[in-house]
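Researcher: Next entry in the queue.
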Amino acid sequence: MFFIAFASSSYADNHDKKQEVLDQVKDIAKELEEDEEVPLNDPFAGNEGTSGMASNIPEEEQDNQLSLYNFKLVGLISGKDYSYVSLVNSSGEVMTLTLGQYLGKIQLIDLRLNEAIFKKEDESFIIIDFNNMIRESNEY
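Model: Structure for this entry, 140 residues:
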């Protein structure tokens, strides 16, 4: 009889400790739910952060909202009759262009497997790829 009383006393002690731990976990979870959600990373930061990218933007492009430097290539769809690119800006707005359409002063003229080619007013080209590498060229 003594053994049974001891076992039930031991069970009650463990149950109280488990309940105490569960209550603490619930309190922590409640605090975490109240915290503001923040993104894990900035998709526009690249590998070197935003400060490195800002210095690569040509001076004439810095104030232009529709500059290709303010977008990231997120999708390419190439079909028999139509081809599209999807670009997203830093505020998360998606812009979809088809061949021949303009993004500001540049015109989407061609796609490759992993890049989009735009023609500038001065007949040079600007190319963006999925690594957010933007390069200008006299030919493509």
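Model: DSSP finds two helices and eight strands in the chain.
Researcher: Noted, moving on.
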